[in-house]
Write a structure and sequence with these properties.
By secondary structure, this protein is an alpha/beta fold. It has four domains: about 80 residues, no CATH class; about 90 residues, Pdz3 Domain (Roll); about 200 residues, 2-enoyl-CoA Hydratase, Chain A, domain 1 (Alpha-Beta Complex); about 100 residues, no CATH class. It is built from 19 helices and 23 strands. Strands 1, 2, 14, 15, 16, 19 and 20 form a seven-stranded mixed β-sheet that branches. Keywords: Hydrolase, Protease, Serine protease. Belongs to the peptidase S41A family. This is S41 family peptidase. InterPro entries: ClpP/crotonase-like_dom_sf, PDZ, PDZ_sf, Peptidase_S41A, Tail-specific_protease.
Length: about 525
Amino acid sequence: MKMNKIYLPILIAVAVAIGLLLGSTLNSFQDKDFLTKNSKRNKLNKLIDFIDREYVDDINTDSIVDLTVSGILENLDPHSVYISKKDLKSVTENMKGDFVGIGVNFYVYKDTVAVIKPIKNGPSEMAGIKPGDRILYADNYQLFDKQIQNDSLFSKLKGEKGSTVSITVFRKATNEKLKIKVKRDVIPIKSVDIALKVSDEVGYIKINRFAETTYDEFHKALLSLKRQGIKELVIDLRDNGGGYLEMAVAIADEILKDKELVVKTKNKKGTEDQTFATSKGDFENGKVYVLINENSASASEILAGAIQDNDRGTIVGRRSFGKGLVQREMPLGDGSAVRLTIARYFTPSGRSIQKPYEDKGEAYFNEFEKRFQSGELYEADSIKVADSLKFKTKKGRVVYGGGGITPDVFVPFEAKHGEEATVMIMQSGVVSYFVFEQLDKKRAFFNELDFKLLKAEVLEKDDYLDAFKQYISESGILLNFSDKEKIKKYLYAEFVKQLFDDNSYYEIILSEDAMIKKVLEIK
């Protein structure tokens, strides 16, 4: 795959697709009348029965029903989707914010499950599993030298809380095979990636989605930063495709003052619900900056719109995705579900930021390509807004509806030397895997290095840069290495992440971040 202007939009769109499908949702409900029979539904039921009983060949009618449901939803909007029984469990876990397992970050390296790093204080770390270990067996089930699907692999490592699995590992560093008993436990899936200070008075919180635990994670992070003396706050919603509407509202309530409007929703019957901030709030004073980009959608746009329309903070970045539809998850009774659009939401000024969806297919989700070609990602003047969709914020500033949140301060897509893909690649899994393999070659050596020695090892030599060039080339990715110092810095950050901690990793990459630099410049 060539990493150039042709393929970059596709890669970006794929990266955010799952988040966009999640969208802004309300809690699921059970409607007793939802499946009430009528003549049209009877017609569909009869057809399925005829095929099941009379059709000449054996047909899996369950698959026909799945196709039928998906086909019906395709005639609605792009965010009304069918979730099969197979997929629903993982979707639910992701939005619930935890699962029961052994707690390791891994990838399949040369047909073997390789542990990148056990989760800190998780079951595997407590049991003695180490970075670089190869997981050979889960109980008696072989996990190496075979094409194992991720869902099968996860099923062997997950289980009931408190249950025990016997993990057989090969430890390359000592050339020994070990059998380690791991007691499964609840493993959190973080929706707040990090919370740290980017300057003496500016705190930074990155939210990757709005799940059931997001508000609690955010509030805990906010209080921690306040104890460290922050006076200003950056909320990073870049590449956040949305999630639960209630979580975005709860976070807005921490920032907005009592009785300030957060969001309005309007359903099929025209019933409008308004949600207001309450008297509680742990950051109602102090400057706020919200970072958004073309992949910030739905609940992210609710939060950004509430901050912008109430003139509570500064929106920094690029125009957001443009999803103003609210979904509700409805169970279908067989383990599957439908996520159906049941309302539109409006920002406090009255804007709908839902972009047109006449084309409900790939072009709708891949609008990045259109923005890329139009120059919108590089020039604020290229952003197309409709003069007929003017609205005013609380203080009378003009804002626009019709397709995303337009930032107050524009930051272009990084394009130095034409390397639009550099930052994206350097924060991707390919770098994680490369660094793992470098560590794997001489783990004992790296384990002896402190921060200072590691920095000298990676940044003051070209050895790892040259090895990465070869690795990228063998992966079929074309990357311009003219800004080699930046690439080396990202490599160093990943070494730090795998050897030390996430906080140090983010401190390094945020020092290179164009939007963070802009915030510190305008503050």
